[in-house]
Amino acid sequence: MNDDGCNILHVDMDAFFASVEIRDNPALRGLPVVVGRDGPRSVVAAASYPARAYGVHSAMAMAIAKSRCPKLVAIPPRMAHYRAISAQVMAILESFTPVIQQVSVDEAFLDVSGALRHFGSPGKIAAQIRARVRQEVGLPCSVGVAAAKSIAKIASGKAKPDGLLVVPAAESAAFLAPLPVGAVWGVGRVASGKLSNMGIHTVGDLAAVPLPTLRRIVGVQAVPMQRVAQGLDDAPVGTQRVDKSMGMERTYDEDLVGYREIHAQLVDMADTVAARLRSHGTAARTVSIKVRLGDGQTLTRSVTMTQPSASGERIREHVLALWQRLGLAGQRVRLLGVRGENLGPATSVELSSREGWDELEAAMDKARQRFGEATLRRGSTLL
Question: Taking the complete model, does pTM exceed 0.85, yes or no?
Answer without folding.
Answer: no
